[in-house]
Amino acid sequence: MVLIGFSDALSLAQTIGIVGTIILTLYFSKRQIQGLSIDVETKVLNDLGEKIHRMGEMLVERPTLGRVITNTQTGRWSEEIPFAYYVLYICSYAYDMRKRRVLNDNEWSGWLQWMRNCFQQGTIKEHWKSIQSERWFNPDFQNFINREVVSA
Fold this sequence. Notes:
The chain is mainly alpha-helical. Helix content is 76%, strand content 0%.
């Protein structure tokens, strides 16, 4: 039978406490680093969103600049085409923010209803069908628009 003295028990308890503290520190550090990476990704998406926003403003002000991006339209670019792209990029951005869980359920339901209204009441549905969306938007967003918005 092995007898453990008081000093041995105290040393063992200190060792367990130190190891436990290190494990907890590593766990919470890992969670914080993951949170920071999500924050960085969201910031990058916000920066890109601002650039798209500014580009959309420029295209609405001067529709002929749209030929720089795509020259598939015959003749002059109408004012409606750049604005249609702008609306679609707003929808794409809202969808991306929902996927990243930046928008809560209530905010998302408002955006979803706004998108559905645009597609039901405006001409954006015709533009969506004619722009060859696979060239401009990611497949997940295309599937969402076709399944949840256009068909609704």
